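Researcher: I'm preparing a figure for a lab meeting and need a structural model of a single chain. I don't have an experimental structure, so a prediction will have to do for now. The sequence is pasted below. Please return the structure as tokens so I can convert it later.
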Amino acid sequence: MPTMRIATIVLPEKEVPLPVAVVSDGCWVGLADLAGCFILSLGECCEKPSVANLLPEVLPFLGRLTEILKHWPDHAEEFEAKGGRVYSEAERILPPVPRPPSFRDFYAFEEHVKTARSRRGLEMIPAWYEIPTFYFSNTGSLIGDEAEVAAPAGCQWLDYELELGVVIGKSGRDIAPEKAWEHVAGFTIINDLSARDLQRAEMAIGLGPAKGKDFATAVGPHLITIDELEGAIDGEKITLEMVARVNGRELSRGNSASLYHSWPQMIAHASRDAQLFPGDLLGSGTVGTGCILELGPENTGGWLKPGDVVELEIERLGCLRTKII
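Model: Understood. Here is the structure written out token by token.
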């Protein structure tokens, strides 16, 4: 089991989001408590509604918190003696960072871009190979694991998108590619749900995506810290198998190693003349074969519909489930 998995839960007795570290399956400790007991003087902030904003403040200390969790049995007694609680029930799981400062979603897998464009009768854009481009998405519409999603008004073509996500852990501006990994807190799974018919109409105008994307984006279930992915990262490349299933049927399979624009390149581009902050979320864009648009609805049983369950699984990161209602 990874020694540092971060989630955000809502407790049955409260509606306040609580950022937690997973100490075992079904058991969590609050990050505010954890940091307050061993690193920071956070006082009673873990009882305040602003706790949802605490996670970006704790992210720079993840390395030290990871060391504590690696030897949790040695620290558990001290933690509880200082007033820290261990939780075993959650009403629901939110995205690891429920409201990140920003969400940039890239377009970095060549196979997806070429196939999606060819299905619309379009050639590749030469500039795509030069620029790891992204758009800003809606941080207010992020949802967590096991969340329910309805198609937005007027949508008949609801789609999933299988993406790898990065959460920034250390602030930076004009970050050099060779320094980029130092600014990464960890990785998560993103389902960039898309209303394809709305998206097609608005992007024909030359701007977007907007309403085709901003109704819901699933993120989670956990943030896996970068130190847990030793062996998967080699230079600028990260190698993780990526799979999507709908109602148990595998539709998509790819690997993060096929990224044309690497994560260090994307982070460098995102931070050019702009500040990245702890908690910022970056998406890779859809892996090749990772959506119905690319596969063709005629080959998948149609677009997503009420009753469908979408499972996105990425090696070592877990499985993110979304229910269509």
